[in-house]
Design brief:
Length: 306
């Protein structure tokens, strides 16, 4: 979506400011019919407050974060949008950080503002949208833009938050990355998503998991058995142990999470020990899986010998 500013003279300054979080650009005031003298008169009367070069607060000098973001976009030229860390803050996937407001614009600034970090680039329409009335990069584009400036943990939290807020889920993000192939940040996001959405086939899962269980001292388990009303992945009835594997560790809807809790609670109520591992752990972190299985087996044996 390409945003379009309202150029109509019929839109009053107050109404325009209301839609733009209390701020207007000087060129918008002139479009609304105010002369330079008229603008200066309203500044003197306390109706307008200059908060940056070419940007005014209407009615009062206090401006919210969104007002400052909108002002930065308005002063940065046609097709300018909030981007990078500032866009992440607007979307709510990263906390707002002190420093300059980041915008992306295809135009060269005639007048540079010290409080704006401008990224000169032409973005396709699919990367542009509006959030709370503010032109901004879409969530996928925003995550790509910030990926290289964050630690692995910070990036994971940002992706998790986008998922939690129903802005974009890991599968949709993975698909969207195809449109950004070769760009900075894509490789880091792919690596992160692969760890969290990786899923083995049933035969691959059993082929990799069963030797790990054997090395932990476990006998061959029953597979795909109904236990306490639920089909489980691996079951050792003599030990009272159930192991479940999750393919999508952090893209879990509230309904899925509730079902998993009910399953685990049912097994615990029946005196069983439920364990969960991800498919990624079974494939790439088998020592971790074996260590945990071994610890559980030892605990079971200790309790029986007591």
């Amino acid at each position: 979506m390409v945003w379009e500013i309202d150029h109509s003279r019929g839109a009053g300054v107050w109404e325009l400011a209301r839609r733009q979080h209390g701020v207007v650009a000087g060129w918008q005031l002139r479009e609304a019919g105010l002369s330079r003298r008229g603008i200066e008169h309203r500044i003197a009367k306390g109706r307008l407050y200059r908060i940056a070069v070419g940007v005014y607060a209407v009615g009062r000098p206090e401006v919210t974060s969104r007002g400052h973001w909108m002002g930065a976009v308005l002063s940065s030229g046609p097709r300018a949008v909030l981007s990078h860390g500032s866009a992440a803050a607007l979307w709510g996937i990263r906390a707002q950080r002190p420093g300059r407001i980041e915008v992306s614009t295809p135009a060269v600034f005639r007048r540079r503002r010290g409080d704006i970090a401008a990224h000169r680039r032409t973005l396709p329409d699919g990367d542009l949208t509006i959030r709370d009335g503010i032109p901004v990069t879409c969530v996928a584009r925003t995550l790509v833009d910030i990926a290289c400036s964050l630690s692995r943990g910070e990036l994971e939290r940002a992706v998790n938050e986008a998922d939690r807020l129903d802005l974009i889920d890991p599968e949709a993000l993975r698909t969207a990355l195809d449109d950004y192939r070769g760009q900075r940040g894509v490789a880091r996001l792919r690596k992160l998503l692969d760890r969290r959405t990786f899923r083995l086939t049933r035969s691959e899962l059993e082929r990799l998991f069963l030797p790990v269980a054997c090395r932990a001292g476990l006998p061959v388990p029953l597979t795909k058995q109904m236990v306490n009303g639920f089909e489980v992945d691996f079951y050792w009835p003599d030990l009272g142990l159930v192991v479940e594997t999750d393919g999508l560790r952090y893209h879990r809807t509230p309904a899925q999470q509730a079902r998993d809790r009910i399953r685990d609670q049912a097994h615990l109520a029946a005196g069983l020990i439920p364990l969960r591992f991800t498919h990624w752990q079974v494939r790439y972190e088998r020592d971790y899986v074996r260590t945990n299985l071994l610890a559980v087996v030892r605990r079971i044996e200790a309790s029986r010998s007591a």
